[in-house]
Write a structure and sequence with these properties.
This protein is 33% helix and 24% strand.
């Protein structure tokens, strides 16, 4: 008798963590192996795309994957059947196709399974329903990969020759860099406008109210200068106010939708301080499976790369039941909440949600790392809240008029029913300030007399657009249709790693190198960094996925004009001569004369005896203005992350520092030092005193002196 063991079924997934989780669900009749991501790709040493013959790609085994493939081939020989269970998206479909090609599996056979969450029920159900490989998904991924390779491998060498070795351009990364550069230019060219508020403290019926001036003689008035605001303040202080109108009502606030990839990245940045890359790394761990004490390895959240806000009926029903049990039936809306996704959203997968509401974050906290707990809790609460009833607020607006014709308005609200806010509230990138001062609800009646306790006029200036954070850049990329859920985190990581963009206190700034590259791209490769063009290309890739376009046609339509643009750029771009210029600074380590070099953050001093001597120094430039604090010299410096700033030469004895360049002229109103602001309409000096902020044309100030 043969002692040969019965044949097994081989399941192939991407990651070892996913393999460990799934193998525990499937038992001994299955073997689960991991491919460790992609196993084949275009070669790094050459273009790898035959532009003369239909743009056919040349794939090779990725370095380091040989041993992985050898192990998979060995297991495949003894397998009864092979099941490809890679992630349920374009990349996952492509990995399955590459594996099928390598293992000699017919893509038309029922060899492919997918699941949106890694739970025992879902995995076992999916294994019973294999399908063929979706070649339209594979075509979309292949088209994207070839497009990115053509752009990167055709433009990057040009940058190496004309500017500096090691630079790169990319179809999505170049647009993202441009957006950061453009935003910085908007900020630099922004011209603040002055405006004023006049706020009052009032007393009526024993209650104290806060109110803001809104109208004079029945006409709304926007206060634009201090003289105007002072006159209104004087009229308010004359008193004689009575309650002229009271509006009471209700305001309903609807919960935010469940997480998409970009929503999760934005909210994790705002609430948890996570970078996009960190968010995706932790989310991947939660999706693939975590060992939960007493329960084994479980996938805690559903698939993490999605731009859909759709939820399954089962998930919604589970949420509604849990809400009723935990919070009461009044917290369950009459009908389940449904949400509309953004235009062009791919609806293949559900929104990101917990796989099992019985696994409360606090109850499994000891089995999770601190970061895993924080992100899981965020996903969990967001999902529960999205199926809860609206929050209801009681609102009150009181208008008071004086005999002098001044109208003041006091607004207030209080929670009538907490609804979903008992669980979760969404954060905003820019919280801003309320136009109306918030007051406590007051029990007053029309005709009641109102006493003025005090009035105050405050000066304000309109603010420039905020610099991008990782969260707001992801939102902007999504809104403009640039990239897809899987690309946001790697795109931001790339532009940071390349030194085109820097991150400081969450804000993203372009570096000198980023500005230089973007300017060149805008001049010679305008389509590549054009937002509308790039979004249109994303739409074409979506149409390939939907079977509406052939991928060869998409690449051919792009490459013809691109090739002509490339030829034009090669002939017209002048080489940026970055020869080492010798300075008058002596290297304090070896005595050589240091030279000027250009790095990712601009020019710096370096020893010419590199690599024997690795000494470098930041270039310090003296500016005309003295230090406002001690009168010593002020130096222009470069921060660790490449941003220019101005500091005292006597540091650390004097700690003066400013991001804006101080000038020698003093503020004509308060005597404080002023800084230079460059705009399209010319140069201005702006008072550094936050309570003054007087602004005068630079030419006018110099003439007066």
């Amino acid at each position: 008798m043969s002692s040969r063991k019965p044949a097994y079924k081989l399941v192939i997934v991407e990651s070892p963590a996913k393999a460990r989780t799934i193998s525990k669900f499937l038992g001994r009749t299955y073997k689960v192996e991991a491919s460790n991501g992609h196993v084949r790709d275009l070669p790094k040493s050459q273009l790898g795309v035959d532009v003369e013959h239909g743009f056919e790609p040349k794939y090779i085994t990725i370095r380091g994957r040989g041993e992985v493939l050898e192990r998979i081939r060995k297991e495949a020989k003894g397998a009864k059947s092979i099941i490809l269970a890679t992630d349920p998206d374009r990349e996952g479909e492509a990995i399955s196709w590459h594996l099928a090609t390598i293992l000699g599996i017919d893509p038309e056979s029922a060899c492919r399974v997918e699941f949106n969450e890694i739970t025992e029920k879902t995995v076992k159900s999916a294994i019973k329903k294999p399908r063929t490989i979706n070649m339209e998904l594979v075509a979309a991924q292949q088209a994207r990969r070839i497009l990115d390779r053509l752009v990167g491998y055709k433009i990057s060498p040009l940058l190496w020759v004309k500017i500096k070795k090691g630079l790169s351009a990319g179809r999505v990364q170049s647009v993202a860099t441009r957006m950061v550069v453009d935003r910085e230019q908007e900020i630099e060219q922004f011209e603040p406008e002055e405006y004023w508020h006049v706020d009052s403290k009032l007393s009526t019926s024993g209650k104290t109210l806060s109110a803001r001036f809104v109208a004079l003689n029945g006409e709304k008035v926007a206060l634009s200068d201090g003289e105007q605001a002072g006159e209104i303040k004087r009229l308010i202080e004359q008193g004689g106010f009575t309650v002229s109108a009271i509006k009471r009502g209700e305001r309903h606030k609807h919960p935010a939708p469940p997480f998409t990839t970009s929503n999760m990245q934005q909210e994790a940045s705002r609430k948890l301080g996570f970078t996009t890359a960190k968010t995706m790394q932790i989310a991947q761990q939660l999706y693939e499976g975590v060992d939960i004490e007493g329960r084994g390895t479980l996938g805690l959240i559903s698939y993490i790369r999605t731009d859909s806000v759709r939820l399954s009926e089962e998930a919604v029903a589970e949420a509604r039941e849990a809400i009723a049990n935990r919070y009461g039936s009044e917290y369950v809306p009459e009908k389940p909440n449904s949400y509309k996704g953004r235009k062009n959203a791919q609806d293949a997968h559900e929104a990101i949600r917990p796989t099992n509401l019985d696994l409360r974050p606090e109850e499994i906290k000891t089995s999770l790392t601190n970061d895993q707990f924080k992100l899981y809790r965020l996903v969990y609460l967001r999902f529960v809240a999205c199926q809860m009833a609206d929050a209801v607020y009681e609102t009150q607006q009181i208008e008071m008029k004086s005999e002098a014709g001044v109208t003041l308005r006091s607004s207030a609200e209080r929670v009538k029913f907490a609804g979903f806010t008992a669980v979760y509230e969404e954060s905003l990138d820019d919280q801003g300030t309320l136009d109306n001062l918030a007051s406590a609800m007051a029990d007053v009646n029309e005709g009641d007399k109102v006493d003025v306790l005090e009035a105050e006029a405050t000066q304000h200036f309109t603010q420039p657009p905020a610099r991008y954070t990782e969260a707001s850049l992801v939102r902007a990329l999504e809104e403009k249709g640039i990239g897809r859920p899987s690309t946001y985190a790697p795109t931001i990581s790339t532009i940071l790693a390349r030194g085109y963009v820097m991150r400081e206190k969450k804000q993203l700034f372009p570096t000198e190198l980023g500005v230089m590259i973007t300017d060149m791209m805008k001049e010679y490769f305008s389509d590549i960094v054009d937002i509308a063009f790039t979004a249109g290309m994303e739409n074409q890739l979506d149409r390939v996925e939907e079977g509406e376009l052939d991928w060869h046609e998409v690449i051919e339509g792009f490459y013809g004009p691109f090739e002509k643009t490339l030829e034009n750029a090669e002939s017209k771009i002048e080489k940026v001569d970055i020869k080492d210029e010798v300075s008058d600074v002596v290297c304090d380590k070896c005595g050589a004369m240091m030279v000027y070099k250009i790095g990712r953050f601009g020019r710096f001093l370096a020893c010419p005896n590199f690599p024997e001597c690795r000494n470098t120094k930041a270039i310090q430039v003296e500016i005309e203005a003295p230090c406002p604090k001690c009168g010593a010299k002020l130096l222009q410096k470069t921060s660790r992350k490449g941003r220019k700033f101005y500091g005292c030469e006597r540091y650390p004895d004097c700690d003066f520092v400013s991001w804006e360049m101080p000038v020698k002229e003093k503020c004509p109103k308060c005597g404080s030092y002023m800084t230079l602001s460059r705009t399209k309409k010319g140069d201005f000096y702006v008072c550094a005193n936050e309570t003054c902020r007087t602004r005068v044309p630079a030419a006018q100030q110099e003439e007066e002196e």
